[in-house]
Specification:
Layout: E1 30-34, H1 49-58, E2 63-65, E3 71-73, E4 87-92, E5 95-103, H2 118-128, H3 139-142, E6 144-150, E7 153-161, H4 179-189, H5 195-199, H6 201-204, E8 216-222, E9 226-231, E10 245-249, H7 256-262, E11 267-268, H8 275-287, E12 292-307, H9 317-325, H10 329-337, E13 342-343, H11 369-378, E14 382-383, E15 389-391, E16 394-395, E17 397-401, H12 407-422, E18 426-429, H13 434-442, E19 450-455, H14 464-467, H15 490-501, H16 505-522, E20 525-538
Parallel strand pairs: 1-10, 1-11, 17-18, 17-19
Antiparallel strand pairs: 2-3, 4-5, 5-7, 6-7, 8-9, 9-10, 12-19, 12-20, 13-20, 14-15, 15-16
Helix pairs in contact: 2-4, 9-11, 15-16
Length: about 575
């Protein structure tokens, strides 16, 4: 999550367009508004939610997590299990491993008609584990030591895992890539840093249908404008009802509603409308009998601020705690969201079975200007006559970044900037387009001090990629990993390792509690709120169901119907 984002502010310009009659969309074409441009359609490289949202239109993986939280087979005939004997724990070299048998469904093909085979997973694994290739979560690939192919059936594979992990079957992001198209590219450029990424067919020739195995293929890409999708005639499942889908980029979330009312778009994706806009539009839609449904679904999305722990000021935990104590998060969610989003206390959502708010387990930071000031005084940052704190002649000043054009985030920034000013902390706002912010600034840990964005995951998902010290992106590991803070905690690392190998659910929860204890004590992140996912659909859209997690509703796009 991959995957990471937030939302914006209502702009009233253009509301008069509601008086115009806009025809209901049909199965001939559906235009979807999205606020963030994707960084790549290569499933091995993508980290942005916008990419994942669109990729689910064109790509499938071995398994998927439903909206109800159930793991189901997708490209696989069935999910291997220890109970059925299709997976087993073996010991070799004094270490326990899992060997699991996977079989790809017979009808699975790439868009050019070539079959999806085990070799496509081997090619993906080879590319994703290469030291020269940047992957958001390397662990999901390195957990598989090798893949063997049944000599009698190229669709039967045996996965050998390096550890006996309880969640070995949860391979929803273990995507194949077409060997017949991508292997030659990797063989030619794979030894160069970012050589494969820049020369992949997903970059050079993204409309090649052979790159995709889902219900659609990409028919047109115009960066900064739109991505168009056409039905994949070689899709293994039922043919989609909608004959053309266009995802339109509208980076300024404040203009999303005007585009909807004018008919430029027919619906707004989960990565489009701002929360306060959605609240206001929902009221108007009901009052004016507009032909739209506004969906609010509690999600596992976690809006927060990453702190760069390499920053000399933020190395001091007292400063980090003071930053959190000096913001009134309860007032923030009331002021901006009418109290309909919950204050976050750590990185695990109330929708997750691993969630806890037990003060015996975690450290809580209720708003207190007094306690914040006390900690800053202890850290040597004294209040000056100009209203700002300073130490050794240097002002307490921090750069605060997020995605430009996202109105809610920009409002949140201003709100927090004012609160920190009252505590004597100068905060300088410096925002960037989402493509730059996520594709470069965060990936390469270039943010100076504070970065506001969101993580979207799934229930009972190990936080390894964002909290393990091994997941700190560096030049040495080709900037793989999503621990952008640079947080390193031996106790958390140990609990993460134990979590992966624990088959007892109660004990897994205990390991998560240890991680949360250290996470909340060290404050590498400022938690803000748990998000609700929002989308707007035309009333005639049937079989549309939001998931509230990182495996988006586009995963069932073939069921959508506008008749």
């Amino acid at each position: 999550m991959l995957n990471k984002f937030a939302k914006g502010l209502l702009v009233v310009a253009g509301l008069g367009l509601g008086a115009q009659a806009v025809a209901a969309p049909t199965n001939a074409e559906l235009k979807i508004g999205i606020s963030q441009e994707f960084e790549t359609m290569n499933p091995l490289i993508m980290t942005m939610s916008a990419s994942a949202y669109m990729y689910r239109l064109v790509g499938r993986s071995l398994v998927n997590l439903t909206a109800e939280g159930k793991w189901v087979p997708q490209l696989a005939k069935e999910i291997p299990s220890l109970e059925k004997g299709t997976a087993k724990i073996v010991e070799a070299g004094g270490k326990k491993h899992i060997i699991a048998n996977w079989e790809i469904i017979e009808g699975a093909k790439w868009g050019d008609g070539k079959p999806v085979i085990c070799q496509d997973f081997i090619t993906a694994h080879t590319i994703a584990t290469a030291p020269t290739v940047t992957v958001g979560e390397k662990e999901q690939w390195t957990q598989v030591e090798k893949i063997d192919i049944d000599p009698k059936n190229p669709k039967k594979c045996t996965f050998t895992y390096d550890k006996a992990k309880w969640d070995f079957y949860q391979l929803a992001q273990f995507f194949p890539v077409p060997t017949h198209l991508e292997k030659a590219i990797f063989d030619k450029y794979g030894k160069q840093k970012e050589g494969y990424e820049k020369n992949s067919n997903y970059v050079r020739n993204p409309t090649n249908p052979g790159l995709y195995n889902g219900p659609y293929v990409i028919s047109d890409v115009k960066l900064g404008s739109h991505v168009a999708f056409a039905p994949n005639k070689n899709f293994y499942g039922k043919q989609p009802n909608i004959q053309k889908i266009v995802v339109k980029l509208i980076p300024n979330t404040g203009t999303m509603e005007a585009n909807l009312r004018s008919g430029t778009i027919d619906m707004i994706s989960v990565l489009g409308l701002d929360f306060d806009q959605a609240l206001a539009f929902d009221k108007k839609a009901k009052a004016e009998s507009l032909p739209y449904d506004v969906h609010f679904v509690p999600s596992v999305t976690y809006e927060h601020i990453d702190l760069n722990l390499d920053n000399p000021i933020l190395k001091d935990v007292k400063v980090r705690k003071a930053l959190l104590l000096s913001i009134n998060r309860e007032d923030l969610v009331k002021a901006l969201f009418e109290g309909r989003q919950e204050v976050a206390i750590h990185n695990i959502s109330p929708k997750d079975p691993w969630f806890t708010k037990d003060p015996k387990v975690i450290t809580l930071y209720p708003y207190s200007k007094r306690n914040a000031g006390k900690l800053l005084d202890e850290a040597g940052w004294k209040m000056g006559a100009d209203g700002y704190r300073a130490k050794d002649g240097k002002r307490l000043s921090l750069v605060f970044q997020t995605t430009a054009g996202n109105k809610t985030r920009e409002l949140v920034q201003v709100y927090l900037q004012n609160q920190w000013k009252q505590a004597g902390i100068e905060v300088l706002i410096k925002n960037e387009p989402a493509r730059v912010f996520f594709g470069d600034t965060m990936t390469h840990r270039k943010f100076g001090a504070m970065a506001l964005f969101a993580w979207v995951s799934s229930p009972e998902n190990s936080p390894r990629s964002t909290t393990s010290s091994k997941a700190i992106p560096t030049a040495k590991n080709s900037w793989s990993g999503q621990n952008f803070m640079g947080w390193s905690n031996a106790n958390a690392d140990k609990a993460l390792d134990e979590l992966d190998l624990e088959f007892n659910a109660k004990k897994r929860a205990e390991h998560v509690a240890t991680i949360l204890k250290n996470y909340t004590e060290d404050v590498p992140v400022l938690p803000l709120y748990y998000r609700s996912d929002i989308s707007v659909t035309p009333k005639n859209l049937k079989n549309y169901k939001m998931t509230g997690h990182q495996f988006y509703e586009t995963n069932n796009v073939e069921d959508w119907n506008l008749n």
